Amino acid sequence: MRVTRQILLAFFWCSTYVAFGQHKYELIFMPGIETTIAKRGPHYKTEVSSVKFLKPISKTMGGAFNITQSEKWSYGIEVFYDEFDYGYLAESHDIFSSSGVMLASGDMHADDRIALLKCGIRMGRWIMARKKIGFGVALVPSLGYYKKSLLLNDTTDNSFWREPYPLEIQYNGLIPYQRQGWNFLLKTSIEAQYQWSKHFATSLVISYQQGFSAFVVDSVNIVRPFELSGPKEHKYWTSVNGSAVQWHLGFKYFFQ
Questions:
Q1: I want to staple 38 with a disulfide (CB 3.0 to 4.6 A). Which of 86, 134, 167, 190 is the partner?
Q2: First and final C-alpha spacing in the chain
């Protein structure tokens, strides 16, 4: 009976070791950049100016722990820090068309860091893996936490400014709406990988991240008080929910 028990224990430990050996583990560091996809308005030319929406570049970085099974499927966790900037360019208001004089209303962007700390679950699959080159896709549902910016809530900061020449333009910044707390996000990624050795690889990851609830809405009124036909005023706004296109460079270390 004792011998049978020892044989069963030995079989259990051997099978556990074999199962463990079938998995490949990886640590990944991923610095990158992203462009915010925020809702913006207005979407038309106003009496104040025409509108061109910007796609500002900000930073994103993080790391992940992955388990690859049977060389096809992978799963793991990731932690990221994403910053979001936004903007629009209200420009090309023609004052005197015959003279060609133009006024630019301004380049609007976030006055402080708008950032999410995220934690997500990675689920991926390698589409093709030949020797050192591989291509894969991944789906990452995650939760991001946004902490309110005291600077954006400061009523004395950037509440009013103006450009006096050639005709005065006034900018009346409104206190942004901010919602502190957790936000659900869903990210899909396409990855191209080159494996340099048994333990090291680099990859290029392109992702689209979708947010669902706005956590910052920023607005400003642009005013032209001295127009010949009377004062002109319009409100411009941006709404940030975490949606973005991201590019990451991955540095991987494999072990078993």
A1: 86
A2: 35
